[in-house]
Amino acid sequence: MKITDIKFAMLRVPLKTPFKTALRTVEKVEDVIVIVETDTGHVGYGEAPATAVITGDTHGSIIEAIKTMIKPKLIGEDIEDLNRITHLIQGSIVKNYSAKAAVEIAVYDLFAQRYNTPLYKILGGGEPTISTDITISVDYIDKMVKDSIDAVNRGFETLKIKVGKDIGVDIERVKAIYAAVEGKALLRLDANQGWTAKEAVYALTKLEDAGVRLELVEQPVKGYDLEGMKYITERVHTPVMADESTFGPKEVIDLIKMRAADIINIKLMKTGGISNAIRIADIAETFDVQCMIGCMLETSISVAAAAHLAVAKSHVITKVDLDGPSLCAFDPVVGNVKFNGAEISIENTPGLGIKEIKGLEMLG
Ligand SMILES: C[C@H](N)C(=O)N[C@H](CCC(=O)O)C(=O)O
Ligand SMILES: [Mg+2]
Description:
With 364 residues, the chain is α/β, with parallel strands linked by helices. The chain has helices at residues 59-74, 82-91, 97-114, 119-122, 141-153, 167-181, 197-209, 226-235, 249-258, 268-271, 274-286, 302-312, 324-327; strands at residues 3-20, 25-38, 43-49, 129-131, 134-136, 158-162, 186-190, 216-218, 240-242, 263-267, 290-294, 317-320, 333-334, 337-340, 343-346, 356-357, 361-362. The site of magnesium ion has 6 residues, from loops.
């Protein structure tokens, strides 16, 4: 099964409600879809969002990196040579992680199709059902409380509360949500780099002293501020998770050695795809550190790949933030991963099992 072409399309899906974080407000998913064709007629699909504020990637940079740097290296390569291909992808250009991720996802899809088995089985197998949290966008306190209660009523047992704005209001946001859903849902916070280290310690201590129990706090300070992450990790009881502070395996090793966080958020769009995500999970397991699998604003192509990985690595990927498809107004993809509220389940068809993507706009 040899790679003959790589084509591009756009997939646009409105969100149910605007997605608001400390970094940005977004109203629709607009992702680049990568279609890898082979001489046997098998097709692999990948996806990349343009999360410029986190990864630096734009639609233009994703397409250009694949077209000019990755694709020329892959044409004619045999899908059976998976490790060689992922090495070629990773070595084709520095950074550009979302572009690399999209191509790797399509290649892994094809590799699993080649062996006629679902991707998670090729990655090591596991119980093909996992449970995701849902994001509560940062907003007025009453709106966040209402959104949290609605999410609990829809069956979500873990809420990822976006904070990272005004510290005083953030404390009130979390207290109000906790009071509304206590005993019904676990709360994790994501400040998306919005606090300073001192603010984070102040806010988390206030919340801890008020009896608010949090599962974790994600990326309280700027991604580059590892000293700040360490400062917080040493001073609060709430476990600290690194998101924007860690992209690839080397950063994860550095962060773990520094003891700058307790948990790592693995996202395919930060790692450059599945091969490095596996490395990070293995590194974390070696150091006895737990991981979350996360996503950007992505549909059920790349989030499906992340779900397959989460199933296969569930002994170390113990937390799941794969709510991209649940945030979308509809699911345009018919594949083997089903997103049903909090439950994500995988059917027994080859690869990512993608049969149809509604509304694909092919690019020339
Ligand atoms: C969608 C997911 N639950 C999430 O919150 N991801 C964000 C980044 C998403 C974005 O801005 O596109 C995160 O974990 O920081
Ligand atoms: Mg985050």
